[in-house]
Amino acid sequence: xxxxxxxxxxxxxxxxxxxxxxxxxxxxxxxxxxxxxxxxxxxxxxxxxxxxxxxxxxxxxxxxxxxxxxxxxxxxxxxxxxxxxxxxxxxxxxxxxxxxxxxxxxxxxxxxxxxxxxxx
Length: 120
Known about the structure:
Helices cover about 0% and strands about 65% of the residues. It is mainly beta. The strands form three sheets. It has a four-stranded antiparallel beta sheet with strand order 1-10-4-7, with no helix packed on it. It has a four-stranded antiparallel beta sheet with strand order 3-8-5-6, with no helix packed on it. A two-stranded antiparallel ribbon has the order 2-9. It starts with a strand and ends with a strand.
């Protein structure tokens, strides 16, 4: 079964990001049962600048997915976490935006994303 996660930067003002800096824009908790994988099936995103990197992290594991550019509609099958611990594991799914430009860029409040995830 697919689960959706969507988000928007929101707030009162755009966010200024210095070169190489990142901002965490969303974090949620997902429980992954034993012998299940957390899989990123698709990602649709629109950021206000092509210099931004969109990053999905499954913490505290090492599972990450990054994509460059200001927008995308991607069909994926990226395993973010494979639970072989014997117990259910609580994962913090974090969404971040990173400025890859050599100068300060602005992340608009209307920048948004939609992830489809599965526990298989």
